[in-house]
Amino acid sequence: MFNEPDAHQEIRDAIRALCKQFPDEYHRQIDEARGYPEQFVDALMAAGWLAAMIPEAYGGTGLGLTAASVIMEEINRSGGNSGAVHGQMYNMGTLLRNGSPAQKDKYLPDIAAGRLRIQSMAVTEPTTGTDTTQLKTTAVKKDGRYVVNGQKVWISRVQHSDLMILLARTTPLSEVKKKSEGMSTFIVDLRQAIGKGLTVRPIPNMVNHETNELFFDNLEIPEENLIGVEGQGFRYILDGLNAERTLIAAECIGDGYWFIDRATRYANERVVFGRPIGKNQGVQFPIADAFIELEAANLMRFQAAERFDAGQPCGAQANMAKYLAAKASWEAANVCLQTHGGFGFAHEYDIERKFRETRLYQVAPISTNLIYSYVAEHLLGLPRSF
Ligand SMILES: Cc1cc2nc3c(=O)[nH]c(=O)nc-3n(C[C@H](O)[C@H](O)[C@H](O)COP(=O)(O)OP(=O)(O)OC[C@H]3O[C@@H](n4cnc5c(N)ncnc54)[C@H](O)[C@@H]3O)c2cc1C
């Protein structure tokens, strides 16, 4: 519906062709086995799609966020789940924007070529939750190294990543003027860290999403792995959130269209009381309603992505796009399940799987309440509530 440039259609066609090699059965079996879609991820990496936001100078395609969001959308629209790969698309942004020339030369070409996976970013902690400035993991400088101690939770794709971006406190909270200061970002080489100061404990969860508890016990990180200026790490992480939120909005849009397609198809085919169920307004109106919401959310997603690519402020649009798209995909999921009646619960229809997958996005990477709070404070000028 949205009037997109022709280049997007080429991307859509290429991703659809790649995704066709990984049909519903592939994703279903991976989900049932609680496995990781290795071949699918390898295919995306090998084709260079996950390097869409890395400049050409570092071997990426430099396509930008709008095009990257189309890639994520198409993966989800094909029945896949970008949750297995989206970290590779945006985690390198912290390095790209704030890393030294030497760090960028060292890592970005290998990330672009898919030789290095930077699928993980460790921010959330068990006792601080959304209140990130209270995080307790510390990195203390000692003899040319940082020694890390603490704990993280819900850190995704660690078992399928070579590098991880870590946010840790380098100056105690009691010694900083602002609580957002004194935190730093690091590149952790997981190949060296796991078993040598870093313990990874998987968290079984509702979605087939590889996510973990991390325990840091005197993990040593070389000094040169500090990204940017010590103490400024929280700002670096915040700077990356708009891209992450916009990409996840696009994934929700992809899910939403998948649900609408399936619901419509089934409503046309399923005959009960001698007529297709879709002939009943009680069945067709909720599908139409979900479709309208999805189309509206999609406009905000494109607005956020286009502003990001133009270098304009896009925090409000990225947050609202994530909110609207997560809500629309969830409503589409619910309607799709309802339209399928009992069959919606059967694994072989893939609806229950996608239903679980899309539900996550009202909680992570930021929960709905925190978006309300952002809009209330930053757009409407209401008092900060926490
Ligand atoms: C599958 C999965 C993967 C994840 N992957 C990663 C990852 O790779 N890296 C990473 O760092 N994190 C990751 N997370 C963590 C995720 O970002 C957090 O779960 C999310 O930000 C919410 O934080 P929390 O769970 O601590 O909830 P809390 O902060 O404890 O909040 C709990 C509830 O209370 C509400 N709430 C809290 N404070 C307020 C307030 N002031 N006003 C109104 N409501 C409030 C929240 O909206 C939420 O609904 C992941 C989470 C999941 C479930």
Instruction: Specify the number of helices.
Output: 13
The parts where pLDDT drops under 50 for at least 5 residues are none
Q: What structural category arises from helix and sheet content? A: alpha+beta
Please report the first level of CATH classification, the CATH class of the largest domain.
Answer: Mainly Alpha
Give average pLDDT, whole number: 97
Helix/strand order, N-terminal first: HHHHHHHEEEEEHEEEHEEHHHH
CATH superfamily of the largest domain, please? Butyryl-CoA Dehydrogenase, subunit A, domain 3
Query: What small-molecule ligands were found?
Result: flavin-adenine dinucleotide
CATH architecture of the largest domain: Up-down Bundle
Overall outline: globular
Main beta-sheet strand count, sense and barrel state: 4 strands, mixed
Please report which band the strand proportion falls in: under 5%, 5-15%, 15-25%, 25-35%, 35-45% or over 45%: 5-15%
Tell me the span between the first and last alpha carbons.
Answer: 40 Å
Beta strand count: 10
**Roughly what percent helix?**
40-55%
Rg from alpha-carbon coordinates: 21 Å
